Amino acid sequence: MKEIFEWNRVLFNELPGVFLLEVIFRSTVMFTILLLTLKLAGKRGVKQLSIFETVIIIALGSAAGDPMFYEDVGIVPAIIVFAVIMILYRTVTWLTGKSKKFEEFIEGKTECLIQDGKFSLSSFKKETLAQDEFFSELRVKSIEHLGQIKHAFIEPSGEVSVFYYPDEKVGYGLPILPALFIEKSKIIPTDGTYSCSFCGHTEKQKAGTAKCKVCQKDEWVASINTKRIT
């Protein structure tokens, strides 16, 4: 029967002191894995927190939780984990201050998703943001079509920032309301103003079929030019 407050067990879980070197190694490896995994997961997976902040929260939460519940997890190794994490935190913070490229890799950078009422295709492809999900973000901001938007950016936090055209400059644009967008078709029914369902390019089209001048896609949606209701 184990004794209460058997200090070697409580502090070290009866492990040899050299095991602390393995703790340092394990902590460094898991910290790196968490950082890279969340980096690959993209901004939407860590919305409102930077990737680095999320790694710190997860790592510290795990280090604090295990020794609270499991008797086979020693307190001293957990303290070492905390120390290693904080050293790595200070190191990464120092490196982000010294290297702009390293800062962009860790924290990400702002990307333009919409420019002048059309998708910025080169930037949109870089992000893991699905079109439907992005449209949902815009609808929450009371946006009906891309013609209302001058610029839209995805921030390092994953938030979407939108800059609007004034009412007098709102033009025809790709509708993002589900009932209108679902009417996209490769057949243009009548002459009028239509938007490419893929990139948002908008122009007058004659009835029939046509390919977008920007992205070469051939699905079109009837454009609208309603003003924003705020």
Describe the protein in words:
The strands form 2 sheets. The protein has a 4-stranded antiparallel sheet with strand order 2-1-3-4. The protein has a 3-stranded antiparallel sheet with strand order 6-5-7, with no helix packed on it. The model has no long low-confidence stretch (mean pLDDT 82). It has helices at residues 7-12, 19-41, 51-69, 75-98, 100-107, 121-124, 131-140, 178-181, and strands at 111-115, 118-119, 149-154, 160-164, 192-196, 202-205, 220-222. Helix 2 crosses helix 3 (51-69), helix 2 crosses helix 4 and helix 4 packs across helix 5. It has 2 domains: 7-107, no CATH class; 111-222, CRO Repressor. By secondary structure, the chain is of the alpha+beta class. Strand 3 (149-154) and strand 4 (160-164) form a beta hairpin. The chain is elongated, with a radius of gyration of 26 Å.
Please write the CATH class name of the largest domain.
Alpha Beta
Largest sheet: 4 strands, antiparallel
Strand order within the widest sheet? 2-1-3-4
| Structure classification | alpha+beta
Number of helices: 8
Q: Tell me, briefly, the overall form.
A: elongated
* Secondary-structure element pattern, one letter each: HHHHHEEHHEEHEEE
Beta fraction of the residues?
Answer: 5-15%
Helix content, binned percent: 40-55%
Overall radius of gyration: 26 Å
> How many domain regions?
2
Q: Mind telling me the CATH superfamily name of the largest domain? A: bsu07140 like domains
How many strands in all? 7
Stretches with pLDDT under 50, minimum 5 residues: none
Mean pLDDT value: 82
Q: Would you identify the CATH architecture of the largest domain?
A: 2-Layer Sandwich
By CATH, the topology of the largest domain is CRO Repressor
- Cα-to-Cα separation, first versus last residue: 71 Å
